[in-house]
Specification:
Elements (H helix, E strand, L loop, with lengths): L1 H21 L17 H15 L14 H27 L7 H17 L1 H18 L6 H7 L1 H17 L5 H13 L2 E2 L4 E2 L4 E2 L6 E2 L4 E2 L4 E2 L4 E3 L17 E2 L4 E2 L4 E3 L4 E2 L4 E2 L4 E2 L8 E2 L4 E7 L3 E8 L10
Parallel strand pairs: 1-4, 2-5, 3-6, 4-7, 5-8, 6-9, 7-10, 8-11, 9-12, 10-13, 12-14
Antiparallel strand pairs: 15-16
Helix pairs in contact: 2-3, 2-8, 3-4, 5-7, 7-8
Length: 322
């Protein structure tokens, strides 16, 4: 057994040397500067703490043995502020290649950004309250608003987006995207932190939704699962950075499941209804109802009998495919 363990130890040593040698090739994936990288686990933990602050009566951190709301919130904000300053300091140096920058000045800048972000919490809560109201008003399956806050993945994804969006507006690199991609991983809802979304936003069901970076969404918009608000093409790569690539959705629009609305010049006018599975690459006037015409349904029984039904015209109920 001792000889066998010695053989394994030697083999592991050889493997370690091979991998270390592979690290020396100068590729992007070879960089090893662990103290200069943001900590994803810390960022995800901050989301939970901020959720506690946004919904103080629903989510609590049981590690704090305090007896007043003031003390509980103060302690959580202190934790968030400490960690956020640290993480912002890291990404400011990392993302902009400023490793030689004065660390004290970087920390002061990070502190200013972090405090500015925390100042936005009442504003964020104002918007989230409208999102809860929109979900309750728009979903007859909702028992009450508590159910929405506790369990709806759409609300969670919107909450994380609204937090990340404020950091994005403060020009914090990397952290906002880590936040929204965490929400994406647990809900299936992909909202880029750069998107602009108004009040009373409701995502029903949610899985498979994509909202691109330059999307603009007005107030009282409802979207269902499988909706893509995307770009017509990304073949231009980084040459398209900063350009309007994603659609504008005006107020009071409903977009049903599986619809794709693409292109930076595409505008869906206010009060429009976009039916399921449509593919839109040009603007739609206000108040329009958009649907697919002349669907074809083929039913086969066995190998020889085929029944075809063509020209299915959608009626009003067709829009409510959820």
């Amino acid at each position: 057994m001792a000889d066998r363990n010695k053989g394994i130890d030697e083999r592991l040593g050889e493997l370690a040397e091979q991998i270390l040698s592979d690290y020396s090739k100068g590729r992007d994936i070879d960089r090893y500067d662990g103290f200069m990288q943001p900590d994803k686990d810390v960022i995800i933990r901050m989301i939970g703490q901020l959720q506690n602050v946004i919904f103080p009566g629903f989510f609590k951190n049981r590690t704090y043995k305090v007896y007043t709301v003031r003390n509980n919130i103060t302690m959580q904000l202190e934790d968030v502020l400490y960690n956020l300053i640290r993480q912002i300091s890291i990404v400011l140096r990392y993302a902009y290649g400023c490793k030689a920058i004065d660390e004290c000045n970087t920390e002061k800048c990070a502190e200013k950004i972090a405090l500015s972000f925390l100042d936005k919490i009442p504003h964020i809560r104002e918007y989230i309250e409208t999102d809860v109201a929109a979900a309750y008003d728009g979903d007859p399956a909702a028992f009450n608003k508590d159910e929405i806050i506790y369990s709806y993945p759409g609300l969670y994804a919107i909450m994380v987006y609204r937090l990340a969006h404020e950091l994005f507006l403060l020009k914090v690199p990397l952290i906002p995207r880590i936040m929204t991609e965490h929400a994406h991983s647990v809900t299936g809802i992909d909202i880029h932190p750069g998107a602009t979304i108004g009040k009373y936003f409701f995502i029903d069901h949610g899985t498979g939704i994509v909202v691109g970076e330059t999307t603009q969404i007005g107030d009282n918009v409802k979207i269902y699962q499988g909706v893509t608000l995307g770009a017509l093409s990304t073949r231009g790569g980084q040459t398209l950075h900063g350009k309007k690539r994603h659609p504008t959705i005006e107020d009071n629009v409903t977009i049903y499941s599986g619809a794709s609305v693409l292109g930076g010049e595409t505008v869906i006018g206010h009060d429009a209804v976009i039916g399921g599975n449509v593919f839109i690459t040009s603007s739609i006037r206000p108040g329009a109802r958009v649907s697919i015409k002349n669907q074809e349904l083929t039913v086969k029984y066995g190998k020889t009998h085929t029944i075809e039904v063509t020209g299915i015209e959608p009626d009003d109920s067709w829009f409510y495919v959820i």
